[in-house]
Amino acid sequence: MPGSTGKPLEGLRVVECASFVAGPSGCMTLGQLGADIIRVDPIGGGPDYQRWPVSERTGKSLYWTALNKGKRSVAVDLRSPEGRGLVIALATASGRDNGIVVDNNAGRPWLSYEVLAERRTDVIQVHIQGYADGRPAVDYTVNPEVGVPHLTGPAGSGDPVNHVLPAWDLLAGMTAVTGLLAALHRRERSGQGAFLQLALHDVALAGVAGMGWLAEAEEQGDRSRHGNHLYGSFGVDFATGDGRRVMVVALTPRQWAALRTVTGTEKVFAALEDVLGVDLDEESERFRLRETIAAVLRPWFEARVLDEVTRELDAAHVLWSGYRTMGEVAAEIRAGGGSGVIGQVDQPGIGEVLTARSPLRRGEEYGPVATAPRLGEHTGEVLGEVLGLDGAELGGLVDRGVVAPF
Amino acid sequence: MPGSTGKPLEGLRVVECASFVAGPSGCMTLGQLGADIIRVDPIGGGPDYQRWPVSERTGKSLYWTALNKGKRSVAVDLRSPEGRGLVIALATASGRDNGIVVDNNAGRPWLSYEVLAERRTDVIQVHIQGYADGRPAVDYTVNPEVGVPHLTGPAGSGDPVNHVLPAWDLLAGMTAVTGLLAALHRRERSGQGAFLQLALHDVALAGVAGMGWLAEAEEQGDRSRHGNHLYGSFGVDFATGDGRRVMVVALTPRQWAALRTVTGTEKVFAALEDVLGVDLDEESERFRLRETIAAVLRPWFEARVLDEVTRELDAAHVLWSGYRTMGEVAAEIRAGGGSGVIGQVDQPGIGEVLTARSPLRRGEEYGPVATAPRLGEHTGEVLGEVLGLDGAELGGLVDRGVVAPF
Hints:
Chains A, B: GO terms for molecular function: transferase activity. Chains A, B: Keywords: Transferase. Chains A, B: Pfam families: CoA_transf_3 (PF02515). Chains A, B: This is CoA transferase. 2 copies of one chain form a homodimer. The first copy, chain A, is of the alpha/beta class. Chain A folds into 2 domains: 13-209 and 343-399, Rossmann fold; 234-322. Chain A has 16 helices and 12 strands. Chain A has helices at residues 22-32, 62-67, 81-91, 113-119, 139-145, 167-190, 200-209, 213-220, 253-263, 266-276, 283-288, 290-302, 306-315, 326-334, 379-387, 391-399; strands at 13-17, 36-42, 72-76, 100-103, 124-129, 194-199, 234-239, 245-250, 319-322, 342-347, 351-356, 360-362. In chain A, strands 3-2-1-4-5-6 form a 6-stranded parallel beta sheet, sandwiched between helices. In chain A, strands 7-8-9 form a 3-stranded antiparallel beta sheet. A two-stranded antiparallel sheet of chain A has the order 10-11. In chain A, α4 (113-119) links the parallel β4 and β5 (124-129). Chain A is elongated.
C-alpha cells in the first residue's frame, strides 16, 4: 500500500472526548499503533488543558502535550446543539474504520450510547467513569479508598502515604483500549457494535483484588506496612558508601544465591539458618527475616561507592537498580545512557523537550516520536475530511462560534 | 451461535508462558473478554507459584490464584526437548484463532519468534522483558530507576519511598495485550503476523515522560516532594474529629467553589485573595498556597465526625473519598457497600475468597466471576483438543515425565 506505515491500526479512526490521564493515554497508545486519534475539546480547552507540570518557558502544559502526542485536535463549542451535532457526526461517520468513540464525560446525555447507536447501530463506545454509578472520582480519591496508602511508606508510621503516580488512571486508560480493540475484533467478524463502561474505582478494586490483597486482608486482617521492603520475599534499599541508594531484590533462589555470593555472606547465612532452624531458600522465610538479612548485608554496601557496587552486582547477576531523581533520569538520557524509548521533539508552544515513543516495539524497533497538536489545529481539516464540509461551511461554523478559529 | 457467550474475543486462543504480574494480568483480561487462555507452566509451577500473599488456611498463593482466574493450566517439563516441542506446537497450532503467544521468558531461545514463525508464519508473539536489551528487571527495581520513589512520601523527608502497588507491571500487562489485539486486527485484515516486544523499564520511562514529568525535571530540576498533596492544584488529606481520614480534591473551579461553600470559607479565601493579590480559581495558585488553604480548612474537618463530613461533602458535591485499610475495604464489601466488580468464589485449594470480575462492563453488566485452575489441571484436555493427542499418547507423555500427571 503506497504511503502505508505498516502500523497495525493504520486507517482506524477514534474520536476521543476525554480529559486528564485515562482516556488520553489509552487513545495515545492506539495512535502510536497507527490509529487516527481525533481529540475533541471545548473551545479554550478541557479541564486538563493547563494541568501541571507546565513549562516555565511558555506557561504551556507539559502534561497535556505529553498525553496528546500524535493526535489531531478539534475545538468545538460543546454547549451548542450545532457543536454537539458535529461531535456526534464525527463519532458516527460511516465507513468500516469509523464509528469508535472514547469519552469520560459525566452528565453529557447528548453523547450517550443511545444517541450514537441511533445514528450508527454498530458504533463502539467506551465510556470511562469515576464510579460505576456515574459519580465522579479521580485517581487521588480512588487510591485511598482501596487501601493502598495504608500499605505504603515507612514501617510503623501511622499516616497513610498517597502515591504520586496516577497508576489507576494509566491502567484504566490501557484497560479501556483493550476493551475497545476486543469490541472492534467482534465488530469486524459479526458487525455488532458495543457499549463498554469502565469505572476508575472498579479498575482499582479489581487491581488490588487481582493480586490477592483483598482476599488476604479478609482472611488475615491488615498487613502491617513494611517500608521499602518488597512483600513476601527479599528486596530492600541500601545506602552506598558515597551516599547513593540502590534497590536489591532476591525473589528467586538463584537471585538469593547471587546476592550471598557477591557479598561473601554465604557462611553467615548458613550459620544463621542453622541456629534459627530456617531455610532462607524459602521466600517466605526471607521475608520474615528481612530485617536480619538487610542488617547482615548493609555493611557490604556501606563499604563501597556506587561504581563499585554497580560493577560487582552486575558481574554477579544480582537483580538490583540504582535510585535516581527525575532530573538524574533526564540527565542520564541526555548523556546517552537512557533507553531508545525516549527521544526529543521540538514541541510547538514549548520548545525542545524529552518525549516518549511507544514502549511497544516491533522486533527491536521503536516507533517515531511525535508532537502534540495546537488546540483546535485540525478542526477544519478533520471536519472537511470526515464530514465533507467545504470552506464556506467551515467559515460559517467559525463565524457562528461553533468551532474555534483554526 | 448456540452456546455463545457473546463475549468479544470468544474463540480466540492465547498461549501464555509468563509469570508474576504483567503477562498473567494482561492475559487474564483477554480471558475475561472471552479468549481461551492456556497458561503453560513448568512441572511444579513457575517462580510465581508460591508468591505472597498466601492463604494461612492452606498455604496456597492468593496472588497466583487471583492472577490466573478463568485460565486453563498446562504443566510441562520445559527443559526437555519434547516438552518444549509441545509448547511450540500449542503456540503455532493452525486455525484463524490460534497462533498467539505471550511470554516473559529471558533466555529461552527455543521459544523465540524465529522458531515460532518457522512453524506458523503469521504467528503473533508478544514478548515481555525487563530491559529492552534482555536484562532482567522487576517492578521493584524499575520504579526507583525512573525517579518515582524520590517524589513519593512526606515533604522534607530525605528517603525515597517505594510504592507498594506494582503499577508498572499492571500497566505493562495491559499494554502488552493492547499491542496483541492491534496485531490481531492487522492479521485479520492482511494475514501478517507480528513480533512485539515490551520492556517493563520502557513502560515506566514512557509512563513518567507521558505525563510531562521528565520534560519538567529537565527544564526545572527536581520537583520537591509534597507529601499527600496533589501536584499542581489543590488536594490533600484531612483528619476528622473521630480520627478518620479523608482525601479532598479541588482540581476544577467548580470543585473549589463547592469546597469553599460547604466549609463556609468563602469570605476567608476572598479576603486572602485580596491581601495576597492572588486568584485561587487558578489551580497553580491553589497549589502554591496549598498549606495555607489546608490550614484554613482543617478545623472544619476536625470539628466533624466522618458521618457528618460524608453527609455534608456529598450534599455539596465535593470531590472526596475516605481512606480505608484493605481489611476495611473487604469488610465494607461483605456488608454490601462495595461495587459489583467484586464477587466471591470457592477457590479450589483455598476456599471462599473475595475475587474481582473484569472492570470492563457491557453496558451496566459485569461479567462472571471465575476460579483459577489447579496447576496442570487441563494438560490432557488442552493437548487433546488443540494437538489431537489421544489417551495413549497423553499417557506416554506422563510416563516419560514430559507433562505432569493430570
